[in-house]
Amino acid sequence: MEIQWRKSSKSSDDEDSNCLELAEHNGEILMRESDNPDVIIHTTPTKLRAFLDGAKEGEFDNLA
Question: If you write DSSP's letter for every residue of 5-64 in order, what string do you get?
Fold first, then answer.
């Protein structure tokens, strides 16, 4: 089965743009950077939800 990578609609389609891409595969969530697609981070939906909730609450604003 081919992995279907998705990126945010906020990401640019420019060739030079870099973005995070996500996919669901075999019950895991996969993440990669578009400019380095061979490095893939594996996590669970529960851990991703915890991260997204923290990001929505501004817990990581000082990093960007």
Answer: -EE-TTS---TT---EEEEEETTEEEEEETTEEEEEEEE-HHHHHHHHHHHHTTTTGGG-
Question: What is the side-by-side strand order in the sheet with 6-7?
Answer: 6-7, 20-25, 28-33, 36-43
pTM of the model: 0.80
CA–CA separation, 23 and 3 (whole Å): 7
How does residue 18 score in pLDDT terms, banded at 50, 70 and 90? confident
Q: Would you state the structure tokens that stand for residue 6, as one six-digit string?
A: 């998705």
**pLDDT at position 12 over 80:** no
Residue 59 is which amino acid? E
